[in-house]
Amino acid sequence: MGATMSSFGSAIKSVQRGLISLGAGSSYPQTATATISSVDTTKSVLGHLGVNVTNDGSAKGLVQLIVTNATTITATRGDPTNTAVVSFQVVEYN
Question: What burial class does residue 16 get, using C-beta atoms within 10 Å of its C-beta: 0-12 exposed, 13-18 middle, 19+ buried?
Fold first, then answer.
């Protein structure tokens, strides 16, 4: 007896993607946030999809992402010399 996805429904409740821009010239450490639709943080996974840094691809692009609360993603980096844009995805499971 085999099981199919239609037998149980989808395991994924929602997928949200976004960008957080970290401007050049701010103080250390630099943080910025993005607002998402509310998720159950105990059933969600945050994915770091990449960073684009202007004029430099070195350590200035090292950005940490965390789920601050049910509606906020926070990006933090140590070197705000250049502008960086970080992409993220939040998957919430049933």
Answer: middle
Quick one: pLDDT at residue 4? 43
Nearest partner of 32 among 86, 60, 74, 84, judged by Cα: 74
The residue ranges of every structural domain in the chain are 11-93
Helices (H), 43-85: none
* Distance from C-alpha of 59 to C-alpha of 66, rounded to nearest angstrom: 19
**CATH code, 11-93:** 2.60.40
pTM: 0.82
70 residue type, one letter: A
